[in-house]
Please model this.
Amino acid sequence: MTNKSIMLLSLLVLHSMFINGKTTCKRQLVKEWHPQPSSYVVNWTLTENICMDVYGDCWFEDINTKLRTSGNQAVPQICPLQIQLGDILVISSEPSLHSPGINLMNVSEASFIDCLQNTTTEEQSLFCCKLKGMHTVHSQWLTVGTHYFITVMASGPPLCHLGPRLNVTVKEQFCQEYLNSEYCSGHGECLTEIWSKTYNCDCEPPFSGKYCQELDACSYKPRENKGGCIIKREKCSEPGYECVCHPSFT
Model:
């Protein structure tokens, strides 16, 4: 029996031992933008952090069921990752995946789901050498958007059927009105939710607007006798207000 056959047999045994266990991915539902880049290490393995049900185990089905399109899909994969633009991603491969001809490739969403490796070219390979030890993913594969990585071999069956594939969503922030200005004008937090594609401002009352730059003058209840309040925005001036009075009051 060749070394490659032994390795594939070992992988199948590992797969049968561990992939049948149900893993629900753990992640923060709301995250705040961090000014400095963070580093993430993903263990490229068959034995841990593998989820099966795309909208259940992998993506918290109860959080956002409206994104489900055609029922649950059984796609064995490493728990999906959500990071922000500029973060560093490191792949750490387990010894059982150290073999000549094994690499990671960037593929389309359809190829990721169907585990198709013959639709890519060498230019889509993440690393110039075989998968072994620690590898830092180049920033060209971590631009804004969702990226899909699968395990490929020079020959033999696609390994991603066993689990080692990963999708990474890279988010940008829209929390600064001007370059180097304070996030959310200092009146809110720059946050993202698990299904959001971006980070946006969550303003503290009485501030509002895309960057929390607008003050709601009516929040201070400047009227009396149950009168109404209308925000007035004059050009080149701070927002003001106008009272709307009941009859007999001015």
